[in-house]
Write a structure and sequence with these properties.
Length: 188
């Protein structure tokens, strides 16, 4: 029976280019990084391609990883997000430059969210238009500022804010529609 490698052993082995440690890294982090890819593309096949490209870049630059500057997971997520963003054609991102009337809000009752699973929410996020989904993921999930998002996507900062607002507004509508559809299952 093979000994389970510790994360420290995996990191050291990957920095030395050891295939066994690279395999362990892929086995331990594929699911997490695939979910990042899927959030940005909305397409399983494209997400698998991005995941593979991400691991290629991770292994290529593994010697530059410094645990004093952050966790391995955060470092790999950042690489994966960057690979995903680069893979998306700018012309396919429908990024809006218009502003949103912030007073036109749809309220989602707290009990709706209490009965809502993580998978349900991710399914709804995946239905957002590409530009809205990218900004939503970068801001809400990854924690980037609007300035950073604007630089990453090559858009204006105000467009990032506007797209996030529109994404949230669409999500509220979709959550309410989901609640009222046959897909909604009351768990209480």
């Amino acid at each position: 029976m093979k000994k389970q490698l510790t994360i420290e052993e995996i990191i050291l082995g990957c920095q030395q280019g050891q295939a066994e440690c690279q395999r362990a890294l892929v086995d331990n982090y594929s699911e997490l990084l695939y979910s990042v890819c899927l959030r940005y593309t909305g397409d399983e096949t494209k997400s698998k391609d991005i995941l593979q490209e991400s691991f290629i870049r991770i292994f290529k630059f593994f010697k530059s990883y410094d645990s004093d500057k952050g966790s391995l997971t955060a470092w790999m997520r950042k690489i994966t997000v960057n690979v995903a963003l680069r893979s998306l054609s700018k012309k396919n991102l429908e990024v809006s430059t218009l502003t949103v009337d912030l007073n036109n809000r749809i309220v989602v009752e707290p009990e709706v969210m209490a009965n809502f699973g993580k998978e349900d929410l991710m399914k709804i996020v995946m239905t957002l238009p590409d530009g809205y989904r990218q900004v939503f993921n970068l801001s809400v999930i990854e924690g980037y500022s609007h300035k950073e998002i604007a630089e990453m996507l090559g858009i204006q900062e105000v467009s990032s804010r506007s797209n996030l607002s529109r994404a949230k507004q669409l999500l509220r509508k979709k959550i309410k529609a989901f609640k009222n559809s046959d897909q909604w299952i009351k768990t209480s």
